[in-house]
From TrEMBL:
InterPro entries per UniProt: DauR-like (IPR039446), DauR-like_HTH (IPR039445), YheO (IPR013559)
Full protein name: Helix-turn-helix transcriptional regulator
Superkingdom of origin organism: Bacteria
Organism: Candidatus Pseudogracilibacillus intestinigallinarum
YheO-like domain ranges (all copies): 7-116
Domain Transcriptional regulator DauR-like HTH: residue ranges: 143-204
Taxonomic placement: Bacteria, Bacillati, Bacillota, Bacilli, Bacillales
Pfam families cross-referenced by the UniProt entry: HTH_22 (PF13309), PAS_6 (PF08348)
Length: 208
């Protein structure tokens, strides 16, 4: 393609990307042969506070050197003049008598703030499933719940379980904290029609 055809194609790609990803996405076309005023086309220039005639200004020295060598850059971190966080990629288009680079720069500062807020909101300590249970009635109800969940997990009634099914069920109940509940072992033993010593043996097998 000629210089004009290449530039026209890059402009259409730049417009499409900016429209697709919104106002936080800057797309910019550089004429690499114009070192101090490389920008020949830009959309959403507010992202990096640049305009046509400005230079490659958000990259470090190492990245700048790579760009001038024609090396594509993908998903690199940059800092804008307003100290916003930018993630950017640069792709080259070279031909006879021209060297353009299409830059895509996305301001993810707001997303980072949302990420931090969400991280705080979903940060939890230890499970309070057991701690929240306070009296005998609640303890019994909790064990009933865990036992029903375990039956569902194994996928068959106790009467049809083989030894490996029973061991797997004990493992499940142990992981859910059923045996940390007062009288958990004798209650589960009764429901499974096995002795408490069998449960202890299964627990030993699981640990081994």
């Amino acid at each position: 393609m000629s210089r004009e055809e290449t530039l026209d194609l890059l402009k259409r790609v730049a417009d499409g990307i900016a429209m697709m990803f919104g106002s936080n996405c800057e797309t910019v076309i550089h004429d690499i042969e114009k070192e101090t005023s490389s920008i020949v086309y830009i959309t959403n220039g507010h992202v990096t506070e640049r305009e046509v005639g400005d230079s490659l200004s958000i990259l470090g020295k190492k990245e700048l050197a790579e760009v001038y060598k024609g090396v594509d850059l993908v998903n690199k971190k940059g800092i804008a003049k307003n100290n916003h966080f930018i993630k950017g990629s640069t792709f080259h288009a070279k031909g006879d008598g021209y060297h353009f680079a299409l830059g895509i720069n996305y301001d993810y500062t707001n997303m980072l703030m949302v990420h931090n807020v969400v991280s705080e909101l979903i940060n939890v300590g230890d499970s309070m499933d057991i701690a929240a249970v306070s009296n005998d009635e609640n303890l019994e109800h909790k064990l009933e719940e865990l036992f029903s969940e375990a039956i569902e997990y194994i996928g068959k009634p106790v009467a049809f379980m083989r030894k490996n099914d029973r061991v797997e069920m004990i493992k499940y109940l142990n992981e859910k904290g059923a045996f940390s509940i007062h009288k958990g072992i004798p209650t589960i033993a009764e429901k499974m029609n096995i002795s408490r010593y069998t449960i202890y043996n299964y627990l030993r097998e699981i640990k081994e």
